[in-house]
């Protein structure tokens, strides 16, 4: 099963979307895809979320739509039933983990402490959401985890901005970052899809760690050897 962290190799950023009106889902997803962010996390925080996932899955084939705020086995089942291709949770329990595992789609359980990371590794899960990233310790915290727990890989989310994203993406244990900064509330309210596309394009241009490493290697050895 492909990991969520590998879903969008070209895009280092997963937009985290809160949709109030399902009618906005398709134009919003099209704007994100056009800007270069095809992996889209629709949070199950609003009554419109499942309809939004359904609409994106049906009408925007270039998008890889997933569900966020998955906090119960029922959430996982409903999201996959609506067409979610990945699941993200802010935290996890064994019951939630079993449901996400049984869903058949890639999933990212949320962690914010070292013990939660170790408990997931013990259960065979290496790819996790680090939430709430900034409040839980941010870049220095993840850097500290890379020493003792190099097998754990993270998608930090929570409080990340265009300015802070590059320092996360430069870490060896970060595969992507999640965030809402490319979806400002006023642009959503105004249905300003053009502005969202522009902000998405800016986010999609952020280099991720492996790209930085490849670039560094190429610079050291222009022949590629
Ligand atoms: O809904 C969920 O399941 C969450 O875990 C929360 C989101 O990841 C954050 O709300 C991201 O929002 P920003 O902090 O604005 O980037």
TrEMBL record:
PROSITE patterns from the UniProt entry: ALDOLASE_KDPG_KHG_1, ALDOLASE_KDPG_KHG_2
Keywords: Carbohydrate metabolism, Lyase, Schiff base
GO molecular function: 2-dehydro-3-deoxy-phosphogluconate aldolase activity
Lineage: superkingdom: Bacteria
Enzyme class, first EC level, given as a word: lyase
Pathway(s) the chain acts in: Carbohydrate acid metabolism; 2-dehydro-3-deoxy-D-gluconate degradation; D-glyceraldehyde 3-phosphate and pyruvate from 2-dehydro-3-deoxy-D-gluconate: step 2/2
One matching Pfam family: Aldolase
InterPro entries in the record: Aldlse_KDPG_KHG (IPR000887), Aldolase_TIM (IPR013785), KDPG/KHG_AS_1 (IPR031337), KDPG/KHG_AS_2 (IPR031338)
Subunit organization: Homotrimer.
Record PANTHER family: 2-DEHYDRO-3-DEOXY-6-PHOSPHOGALACTONATE ALDOLASE-RELATED, 2-KETO-3-DEOXY-6-PHOSPHOGLUCONATE ALDOLASE
Name of the protein: 2-dehydro-3-deoxy-phosphogluconate aldolase
Species assigned in the record: Streptomyces showdoensis
């Amino acid at each position: 099963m492909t990991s969520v962290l590998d879903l969008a190799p070209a895009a280092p950023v997963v937009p985290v979307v809160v949709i109030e009106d399902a009618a906005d889902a398709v134009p919003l997803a099209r704007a994100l895809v056009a800007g270069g962010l095809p992996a889209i996390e629709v949070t199950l925080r609003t009554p419109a979320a499942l309809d939004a996932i359904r609409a994106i899955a049906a009408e925007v084939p270039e998008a890889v739509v997933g569900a966020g705020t998955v906090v119960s086995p029922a959430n996982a089942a409903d999201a996959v039933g609506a067409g979610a291709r990945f699941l993200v949770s802010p935290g996890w329990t064994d019951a939630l983990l079993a449901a996400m595992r049984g869903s058949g789609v890639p999933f990212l359980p949320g962690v914010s402490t070292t013990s939660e990371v170790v408990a997931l590794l013990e259960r065979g899960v290496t790819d996790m959401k680090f939430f709430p990233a900034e409040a839980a310790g941010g870049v220095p915290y993840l850097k500290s985890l890379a020493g003792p727990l190099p097998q754990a890989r993270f998608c930090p989310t929570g409080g990340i901005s265009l300015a802070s994203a590059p320092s996360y993406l430069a870490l060896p244990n970060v595969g992507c970052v999640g965030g809402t900064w490319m979806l400002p509330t006023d642009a959503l309210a105004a249905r300003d899809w053009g502005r969202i596309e522009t902000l998405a394009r800016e986010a999609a241009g952020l280099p991720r760690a492996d790209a930085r490493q490849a670039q560094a290697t190429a610079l050291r050895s222009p022949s590629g050897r």
